[in-house]
Amino acid sequence: MLKAVLASVLLALPVAALAQQPAKPSAPPTGSAEHPRVVMHTTQGDFTLELYPEKAPKSVANFLQYVRDGFYDGTVFHRVVNGYLVQGGLYSRDLTQRRTRAAIPSEADNGLSNLRGTVAVARGADANSGTSQFFVNLVDNRRLDYVSNQSGLTWGFAVFGKIVSGMDVVDKIAGLPTRAQGPFVGDVPNPLVIIDTASVVGEEKAAPAASSSAPAAPAAKPAATEPARPATKKTEKKSATPKAA
Asked: pTM value?
């Protein structure tokens, strides 16, 4: 539970860190036949992601492996904050965690910004703790961008792709009412939004890996892999990490 709180706090980066932020990072590359695409079929509709292996090779390879393993099939978007982000990629429909592969190093310093429609790696307090979770930015969340390697608070979140079709579906998901459910005190969409299947465009769907649906080790409650909720009032506690959306 403590990890989840820390992860949350990281996303709401302090104003001081924002002040150090460099000039606006470049926009994601324009469409290219060399960029792999992934289609996600959800209970609210379909959307397509274009990935940028030249900018985030480790993040893209990691995401594609989870897709090819069938890991995301049957998982849910467990965190929805309208005007901020939509996050998923770890929990089954009963909101139990799936067993992931080893974490990957952060590529947040790749020059890509967390602009509306971009997809980034969700992580915990440790910048290099991202696994299967990802989030879609609903607005320009530049405060989630890389500032420096000084700490997890300034590392930001690694953008590795962008929604190129079906952003209206993502907005529809963002507009759903939310509630507390399972290990979460809030932000779970009602009804649950399930990823029925995820597949790489142009590739035959592989059989799901046997371990993809296995529950994670009993230690962690909500994983600490999420960007923090943006503070909107002075009385609201600042979260240190985006509850990865």
From this structure: 0.78
